[in-house]
Write a structure and sequence with these properties.
Number of helices: 3
Strand order of the largest sheet: 1-2
Mean pLDDT: 91
Structural class: alpha+beta
Strand content: 15-25%
Number of strands: 2
Radius of gyration: 14 Å
Distance between the termini: 28 Å
Order of helices and strands: EEHHH
Shape: elongated
Length: 79
């Protein structure tokens, strides 16, 4: 588990996430054309619980949406 600091709307905060979640968060941010900090700020705006948990749930939900989209494609090679 890695603890990293990010700046959200001008203040620093720390998040502890497993390496796999940091990697996926970076991939999702890149696809969306934003920074990891920007993506975390978006997640922070709509969260109800702790920030680390909200990030994990966001990554999980995104992966589930991507998997569902792959299942509806004619060729799994497109995924």
């Amino acid at each position: 588990m890695k603890k990293r600091s990010v700046s959200i709307r001008g203040h620093r905060t720390s998040l502890s996430l497993e390496d796999g979640f940091w990697e996926e968060l970076g991939r999702i941010a890149q696809i969306r054309g934003t920074s990891v900090a920007g993506l975390i700020a978006d997640i922070d705006n709509s969260r109800r619980g702790g920030l680390s948990s909200a990030v994990r749930l966001f990554v999980l939900d995104t992966l589930k949406q991507e998997a569902a989209a792959c299942r509806t494609k004619a060729s799994p090679l497109d995924c």
